[in-house]
Amino acid sequence: MIAMEDDELVRIESAALQVAIHPLGAELWSLRDHEGYEYMTDADPAFWTGHAPLLFPVVGALAGDRLRLDGRDYTLPKHGFARRSHFAPVETGPAHARFRLTDSPETRASYPFGFVLEMAYSVEDLTLVMEASVFNPNGRALPFSFGFHPAFAWPLPGGADKAAHKLVFERDEPQDVRRISKGAGLLLPEGEATPVVGRELALRSELFEADAVIWTGLASRKVSYGADGGAWLDVAFPDMHMFGLWQVPGAHYICLEPWAGVADPVGFTGDFRDKPGVVLLPPGETARFQLAVAVRRA
After folding, report:
1. What's the pLDDT tens digit per position in 77-131?
2. CB burial class (10 A; 0-12, 13-18, 19+) of residue 217?
3. Sign of CA dihedral 290, 1, 143, 114
4. pLDDT tens for residues 133-188?
5. Which residues are CB-contacts of 259 (< 8 A; sequence separation ≥ 6)?
6. Domains located in the chain, CATH noted
7. In angstroms, rounded to a whole number, what is the distance separating the alpha carbons of residues 33 and 18?
8. What is the pTM assigned to this prediction?
9. Which of 28, 51, 127, 196 could form a disulfide with 294 if both were Cys (CB 3.0 to 4.6 A apart)?
10. Which pLDDT tens digit goes with each residue over 47-76?
11. Per-residue pLDDT at 4 exceeds 90
């Protein structure tokens, strides 16, 4: 495990929120209001020490950690290398910060492409906006996936009981959800009846005994997370149609994860470019993925 010190954090703030980002992974570590309430995970090592890793150039697991391209195999671990890479801070101000990761001999050994991945944070009043951008400097299409993986406090500060927390989707979500295989972490072919009733999902740790709950074709582009009588987070992700919900059962966080991409389906042996959910970015173009979190205090 790579040591990460608090004194390396980049801090930005508005009149209502304080935000801390670690250059290792350009990872959001803290989202706190000016009353001192923390809306992010406690990162208890008994469960999971992550905060909000960025998933690039893959989301989830590849079968055998193998990236297959043009008849060659490359080794790439679950969720890719961005979350364990140092991003260079390229712009900072009182209420904004921008970080950059570019390809290197180390990244090209597992992912043989040039790329520029930037992560921008800005905060205004009670809203934090995060925007990832992927630029393709190659002379051919860049295949990749990208995902956000923020872990928010469960329960949220404000006094509401943990058992009262729920997720409210922007639209009805009647479709089946998907699960991943134990051990290998691959997307199972069969669906499972959704736990969503109308637009609402009552949160309980038992949901995650079979690991993440996954939507591969979400209708909503916004969800609200919280409890009546307590705080809420309104989470918007206009550029993504896949979504994962996860925790280690019993932990003090819940991960709300918008994705452009997903784990290898069970039995998939094709080229990475043909994998479901992979983005094919034309040469010289930039893809952008935004995640906005608005705090509604109790």
Report:
1. 999 999 999 999 999 999 999 999 999 999 999 999 999 999 999 999 999 999 9
2. exposed
3. positive
4. 999 999 999 999 999 999 999 999 989 999 999 999 999 999 999 999 999 999 99
5. 55, 59, 145, 146, 147, 148, 240, 242, 243, 244, 277
6. 6-296 (2.70.98.10)
7. 6
8. 0.96
9. 127
10. 999 999 999 999 999 999 999 999 999 999
11. no
Query: Can you tell me the distance from the alpha carbon of 288 to that of 31, in angstroms, rounded to the nearest whole number?
Result: 22
Which phi and psi (to 5°) does residue 102 adopt?
Answer: -120, 165
Please tell me the distance from the alpha carbon of residue 184 to that of residue 263, in angstroms, as a whole number.
10
Question: Each residue of 234-243: pLDDT tens digit?
Answer: 999 999 999 9
Let me know: does 149 contact 49? Beta carbons within 8 Å.
no
C-alpha–C-alpha distance, residues 161 and 146, integer Å: 33
Token digits of residue 6: 């608090």
**28 within 8 A of 19, measured Cβ to Cβ:** yes
Alpha helices in the chain (DSSP H): 105-110
Residue type, 3: A
